[in-house]
Every structure is written in C-alpha cells, then in structure tokens.
Amino acid sequence: MSERQLLEVSGLSISAGERTLVSDLSFSMATGERIGLIGESGSGKSLTATALLGLLPEELSVSGTGRLHGFEHNLLTAPERAMAPLRGDEISMVFQEPLSALNPLMKIGAQVAEVLLIHRTLGTRAAARARAIELLASVQIPDPAQAANAYPHQLSGGQRQRVMIAMALANDPQLLLCDEPTTALDVTVQSQVLELISEQVTARGTGLLFITHDLAVVARMCTRVLVLNQGRIVEQGEIDTVFSAPNHPYTRALLAASDMSATDERGRLFTVATAGNYQPPALRAAAPEPVVAIPNPRPFAASFSTESSPTPTHRAIAPLITASNLSRSYHRARTSLLGPRPVVHALANIDFTVVPGERVGIVGESGSGKSTLLRILAGLDTPTGGDAVVAGTSIAGAREADLSALRSELQIIFQDPLGSLDPRMRVADIVAEPLLVPGQSLDAAARRATVLKMLNSVGLEPDSANRYPHQFSGGQRQRISIARALVNRPRILVADEPVSALDVSVRAQVLNLIADLVDEYALTLLLVSHDLSVIRHLCQRVIVMKDGRIVEAGDTEQIYINPAHPYTARLIASSLDLSEELARAH
Amino acid sequence: MLLRLGSNLARFVLSLCVATIAVFAMMRVLPGDPAVIAAGENASPQIVASLAHQFGTDRPLVVQYWDWFSGLWRGDFGISYVTRTDISPLVADKVQVSLILVTLAMALALAIAIPAGTIAAVRHNKPSGTLISALSQLGIAIPGFLLGIVLVSFFALRLGWLPANGWVAPVEGFSSFLSRLVLPVMALAGVQSAILVRYVRSAVLGIMHEDYLRTARAKGLSPLRALAKHGLRNAAIPVLTVTSVQFSALIIGAVVIERVFVIPGLGSMLLAAVGNRDLLTVQSVVMVLVAITLIVNLLVDMLYTILDPRIRAA
C-alpha cells in the first residue's frame, strides 16, 4: 500500500446463508478522499460500511480483504481484539437516526467524553469532559457547556446529529463512514449538517465514505462515486464523469429518476423504464445561472390556466376547500404548579381556499403543522378555533355521523405504505373497504369488478388482489394505498408525504401515477411534502408553512423563483438539486 | 421533578382513599351480619340488637365508614368482632413478618434473574442461553408450595440442616430467625426468579438491537462492556415495571407459603380471619395489602423518574 493510499478493499462479499448480499466489491480510497456510495435500499450500502467496521451481525458471513493504512490486519476478518481499538479511533461512523443512535439515559457530554476515555486519548474524566465541550463547540452547538449536561431528547434532531459527528471525529480518525446521516433531518438542517461534515473532514484530512440514496447529496459531498446495485458495483468514477456520461443503464436510470426537473414529452418524470431518453443535467445545464437553466418544470401548465394570478380564479369558481381562521392548539403537561398549562399552537389562524381541480402543495419542515392541517381537513381531528369547509361539510363541531359525506369526497394516501395497510387483510379487501360505507349499493361481484379495475389503473396485476401487503415492495404498496384512496371516486385526494419512504426509482413512478390519476379522475390534489422539488413538479400552487402559520402562498413557480418570505428563501436555498450541485462543482 | 413527586403523592393519597371505599363496600356486600354471627345460632333479637349496638353496625353506613376511615389514619383498625381485641397491634406484627419474607424473596429472585436473564440474552443462540431459558420455563411450571415441600423434605427432614418451619422474631435470636427464613425465601424466590428471568432476557435482547448499542460498539467498546455501560440501565426500566407487579403478586402468593412453613404473616392472619368470619379483621388486612401495593407503585414511579431523564422532563 502506498503512502497516499488510505483504504484498499478487494473482493468484499457478504452473504446470509445461500443468499449473496454484497458480491466481489472492490475499491480504493486515497488519504482524505471523499467517496460516495449510492444505491437503493437493499443494495448493500450499509452492509459494506458495517463490514469495514467489523460490526456485521454474526449470522452474516464475510470474505475479501480490507486494508487500512497503518493497520496490519485485514479489516474484514480481524479478531474483535484488534478491531475494538480501531473503532472510534481510526475508523468512525455516523448513523442515520441520531435520536436512536445516542443512549437516551446518558448525558451528551459523557457520551462524547466516553470515546476519548475508551481509547485513552485523555487520561482523566475531567480532561475528557473539557475536551468534549470543546468538540461540541467545534460542531457549532450553541452553549456547549450546557449542552454537555443535556440528555439527547432535549436537543433538536440537527443538534443530535452534530453530537454524533463530534463523537465520531473526537479521536481524529483516518476514515469516517457516514450512513445516510441527513436522511432523517429537515432540509434546512440537512444542508447545515452536510456543510459541517465537509468542513470537518477537509480540515482534518479525513477520508470519507458517504452512503446515501440521494444523488444531489453525493454530488455536494464527494468527488468520486461508487454505484451499487443488488450488491455489485455497476459503475464507479469521478462524480462529474459518472453523472454527466453514465455508462451503465442503472446509473442512467437512477439519475433520470432522481432528476425532478427533467420531464419527458408528456410532462412526466423519467422512470427506470423511460430513462433511455434522459439527458443528464450536466449536458443540459449549459447556461450560467442554474435556476434559469432548469427546463420548464410545470408539466401541467398546458392543461391548466395559471397565467393569471390565482385570486380571480377563486372568485369565479366556488371553492371546494375553505379554511378560515383555522386553529388547533394542544395543552402540554404542566411544568409548574402555579400558572396555566403551556399551550402549543400546532395551527394558528390558517386561511386558504382551494378551487375544484387545483393541485396545491403544502411545504414545511417537521413541526410546521402540515400534518395537523391534513388531519383536520380529513375530519380525523377537530379544530380548536375557526372552521374548515371541505366539499360542503363543515369540520368544526361535526360528529362522526356528519362526516360520512366528507369521507366519500376526500381520501388520503399516507407516508408509510406498510404501516397504513392492515397486514392481515388481502389487497382486494383493503381496496374494497371504502365501497362498504353506508350508501354504497354494490353487490360482492360488482365490488370485485371495481377493485380489479382500480388495481389495473394503478398498474397492479389482477392476481395481486388475493395477496397480502407484506408480499409487495414499497412502491407497490403505495399503489395499493392509491387504489384504496381512489376506489370510491373521491373529488379530493390528499397525499401526506406519499413518496418520502420510497426509493428514488420508485418515487418517480408513483409521482407519475398520481399525476396520471389526478388528470384522469379530475381530482383536486392536496400534497404535503418536505421536498420542494416534488411539489414543484406536481402542484401549481404552494402553501409554505412554519410553526403552524402560513408564511407564504401562491403560484409555485413564482414563489420558487422569487420567494417573498425569508423562510421560503432559506428552504429553497437549502434543498439540494442535482443539476445545481453539478453546476456548482464545476 | 418536584412537580412530578407532588402529583405522584397526590395520586397515591387519592388511590388510597378510593381503595378504602372499595374495601369497605365489598365487606358490606358479603352476606353475614357480624352481630348475628357473633351472637351465635338461636340468639334472641335483643341480643343481636345489643351486639349490633356494641359493634356500631346499627349506625348508618356512612357513619360506620367514616368511623373506620378516620381510624385508619391514626393507625386504629378497630376491635375484632370475634376476638374482641384490638386489631392494629396484631396487623402491625404480621405486616413485619410478611414484608421481611417477601422483600428478601424478591431481592433473591432479582439477584438470580438479572445475571441469568442477561446471560440468556447474550448467549441466546448458544446452548447455555437455551438451557437458562428452558430452566426458567420449567421453574414457572412448578408451584411455589410444591418447591417449598421439596425443599423442606430435602434440607430439613433428610439433611437436617435447617428447621422445617416456624418463625422467630429477629430480636429473639438472629441466627434462628435467619435459619427459619432460608427455606421459605428460597421457595418464594424460586418461581419469582423463573418468571423474572424471562423478562430480563427479553428486555436485554431488545436492548441488544438498539442503535445506541451499535454506536457504543462503533466507539470501540467490547460487546460486554457496551452492554454493561449502555444497555443494562435501559433494560432496567421494563424489568422494574414487572418487578413492581410481581411484588404485589408475591405478597398475595406468600399466603400459601406461610401456610406451608407455619409463618405468622398477613396471609395466615387473613385465612384465619376469613375462617372465623371476622369481617373487620379481613377488611383491615385487605386494606393493608392494598396500601402496600400502592406504596410499591409509588416507589417504582419515583424510581422511573430517577432512571429515565425523559420521564423527568415530562
């Protein structure tokens, strides 16, 4: 191994019994190099990183060699005795979910200090604690001395991930493994955390192996990329080369599917199937200003008049959804015997209208109140102030019996397609359930026919009717949810983060399906997402929420190009876009 | 923190008050007027009436309840209808005996179950782990009194190492107090530890798959040190819940063991009082058992608060 070489992996294979999970993976990393490992769920990314750390579950077997500069053993087969001193000292890892990755019962400072004490970097508890506070300061945690005394649940998600980073870098490792470190974070926080990782590894000359499914993130963070598909590296090389002239069809498909600003001639996103016609962004984005360089991202403009501002349209057509002065507040547990219980305003004086046929996006970060708003509109929660009128039904003060009309007019698709489908019901019964509400007069045969027709329109085979949800992939499950939502022909479709739990390649397919069905059934769409690009692709109007209030609302494209509120501007600036990232790198 | 302590205490006092009403009402619903029972068969109505007047059972229920309730706070349970003696000192004696027995049994059960359950979890796919799980299954199936009889016939009758039964108060002779405790405590703890091993095992198994344990390994801790430093305190929370439930069950379960070993505890007192139709004594003993259960729950709630900062904040 040469002096500049940090890591040399060759022939890495991981298998569970007969099944091969990662096969014959080889790559090398120079000192201080930043390599991205991309691929979809199940492609073996996390297994690869875990194997390098020697922490694979016992039931998996591993073969191949992994050489780290200055370490005499093979990383993949070294005994625990040799690996333990290496972990947290020469190789560190930052995990995806910072809340569960930190011990909930131990103070932050002690958790950071621990890694210094284990490796005897510092001899005394007091010295380790003082250094821990310095480290917390270096990852820009406000008031680090106080944070050291806090427990993980008392910090925000972004701060917790900063703590994980401080812990991982405490002993100046040669190699930092990051496994989707920002996937669980809000957009604005994501960009800060990525910035922090970048700064820290650059300053220390740490080698970075960055695992992600997000191509824009990898374009920002890394110089080289390994594309993993079903346990094999299908392509590797410099980011610029791979992303602008992909050799392997899978890379091209991944690029096409994650590029939300590129659409085919029908205005639909590219999928794995249609990726052949896709032009990688680097070839398209020749113009100097990236924002302008994005091709028309409003595929529905033709079918909808959005030239005039939405207000006159609203006057002309009676709104389908009206929220007036809508509020929802919760009481928190008492913190003092005297004085009132603290009140949390999940929604505060929300006003908006949606006319029939409109596609409205609601964007905001966690805690902005967007899910509360959806629940109220769907009649699953009651407002504490104001009212919402949805398809003629007033929500405030309504009892369950009053909401039956609403239930047939409005249907929801939820974020997690597995959690929201009853695991013990067959798909046919799940999809048929909305047809069983009082007032529907279909007999069993007619219901069956309706269900099969619906399954067909969401692109599922007829034989899937007799199967159970767990027998489907994530994208197929979301198709089942969509079929269930649309089977009794509602006028309003509400989608709560419908693609955030899905892989990139599937995401495009599901978004296209929603777009097709919204057109076909003339639906009014209310789409909640934290991802601006999803909303920008599907919705002509957007509502931006923060802390339970609407900070800005209007035409999606206008707001995107010219945000009026600083929060919106920050949101747009923080969300990573593949073509912008590539343009930035040049 | 103080707020939580306050609200826990308030809930405890409230539960205690509600329990007095429930216990009192239950005793009134049971058939058998104490005065009729005390007077004996063929007694004249005058005698019954005078006894009822003497017991105070001819007064309105509310007055009777208040009388009993206000006495409770002073530690006065009243006078037995049957033996005509003060109930309180008797109960105080028996409570001590039962609490010593049950607390020691629970301590022993935990001392066995925590290491055994942890080993069963850590070595869950190895023979030793499976053996512990199998032994615990077997232990649950053996009733405590049977274990008690087996212990007596072996250690007391065959080997003659320990007395077969009886009770000596610690002040009367500490060594004979201890020697008489060993077998009943073992009999009670045997089944308890078998039950607790299962809970400790599943709690530790759950913890072993937690992300923060993986983080601890990634920091460079060995598997066992990671578990000891980051796992056990987290696993303690569900085990504590089960322990508190089991403690209440154990106090009631001790009734049978007290019979087997002829120990004058609350259980023996309760059985005797039921047999004699001594309603007020039954009522007092049941009240004491309820109060002990509530106190254990209060203590466990406070322990949660100490163990888990997330509860502290809420």
TrEMBL record, chain A:
ABC transporter domain residues: 7-255, 321-572
Example of a GO MF term: ATP binding
Top-level taxon: Bacteria
UniProt entry tagged with the keyword ATP-binding: yes
Pfam families (alphabetical): ABC_tran (PF00005), oligo_HPY (PF08352)
Keyword vocabulary terms for this entry: ATP-binding, Nucleotide-binding, Transport
UniProt keyword Transport, yes or no: yes
InterPro entries: AAA+_ATPase, ABC_transp_ATP-bind, ABC_transporter-like_ATP-bd, ABC_transporter-like_CS, Oligopep_ABC_C, P-loop_NTPase
Protein family per UniProt: Belongs to the ABC transporter superfamily.
Name of the protein in its database record: ABC transporter ATP-binding protein
From TrEMBL, chain B:
Start and end residues of each ABC transmembrane type-1 domain: 95-300
Bilayer-spanning residue ranges: 12-30, 99-122, 134-157, 177-200, 235-262, 282-307
This protein's record includes keyword Lyase: no
Membrane topology: Multi-pass membrane protein
Broad class of where this protein is predominantly found: membrane
Localisation: Cell membrane
UniProt xrefs under SUPFAM superfamilies: MetI-like (SSF161098)
CDD domains: TM_PBP2
Top-level taxon in the UniProt lineage: Bacteria
Keyword Transmembrane: yes
Keyword list, A-Z: Cell membrane, Membrane, Transmembrane, Transmembrane helix, Transport
Family affiliation: Belongs to the binding-protein-dependent transport system permease family.
Name of the protein: ABC transporter permease
Species this chain originates from: Paeniglutamicibacter terrestris
Lineage: Bacteria, Bacillati, Actinomycetota, Actinomycetes, Micrococcales
